[in-house]
């Protein structure tokens, strides 16, 4: 079974609408990383969350990590066509400081219609 | 800074041919990684390195070899390419893990799109 579940798999929204993407694990997340990928390009780092209840924002994108550190959400406010792409979450599921590998979700494909 | 670069960007191979993918980073990162990305499978770790001269197997290492002779370079080799190795390959790097902290952010290259016929 997939250790890191992303939902939804794909999302189509009208420009200006808000949206949320979720990333869920059955294990404690010691670090949670959000990336964005445009078709045919590499992954661009967005934000990293570490502490339970932590929330970070960059422009119109806000990421949160729940108190139990098993679920993260990525929220986009007033979406624009430039937000379109694949959003991936990656997680450090090790015991903190001893694991340098990330486990990735399968990604969420976001389409924003003008 | 160029960050993480990969060469080539595209390649088409015939079954049985060999090739090497080159990854270079200019951020003085200790750790480097090779992933493959396939539709519906997400990103899967092939091999990784925690320092110059070291390599380790990831989730899907079969059919691939790697070398890290210089800190800034990480090479991925396919000795005898198979159609199942058709994929997009990404290299990433990160700095040393902080004591007691999570792994540091991984920075990715632009990818190599490989087709094996």
What this model shows, in words?
- The complex is a heterodimer of chains A (114) and B (117).
- Chain A has 114 residues and is mainly beta.
- Chain A has no helices and eleven strands.
- Chain A has strands at residues 4-7, 10-14, 19-25, 31-37, 43-49, 55-58, 61-65, 71-76, 85-92, 103-104, 108-113.
- In chain B, strands 2, 4, 5, 6, 9, 10 and 11 form a seven-stranded mixed sheet that branches. In chain B, strands 1-3-8-7 form a four-stranded antiparallel sheet, with no helix packed on it.
- Chain B is mostly beta strands and 117 residues long.
- In chain B, 36% of the residues are buried.
- Chain B has strands at residues 4-7, 10-13, 19-25, 31-38, 42-49, 56-57, 64-67, 73-78, 87-94, 107-108, 112-116.
- The interface between A and B is medium-sized, with 27 and 30 residues.
Structure, briefly:
The complex is a heterodimer of chains A (114) and B (117). Chain A is an all-beta fold.
Large-scale geometry of chain A: globular
Structure classification of chain A: mainly beta
* Helix content, binned percent of chain A: under 10%
Kindly provide the radius of gyration of chain A, computed on alpha-carbon positions and rounded to a whole number of angstroms.
14 Å
Integer average pLDDT of chain A: 91
State the helix count of chain B: 0
What oligomeric arrangement do these chains adopt?
A: heterodimer
What percentage of the residues of chain A does DSSP assign to strands (E)? over 45%
Q: Which secondary-structure class do the elements of chain B indicate?
A: mainly beta
Low-confidence segments of chain B:
none
What is the overall shape of chain B?
A: globular
What is the H-and-E element order of chain A? EEEEEEEEEEE
Most extensive chain interface and residues per partner: A-B, 27 and 30 residues
Q: Roughly what percent helix of chain B? A: under 10%
Distance between the termini of chain A: 37 Å
Uncertain stretches of chain A: none
| Head-to-tail CA distance between termini of chain B | 36 Å
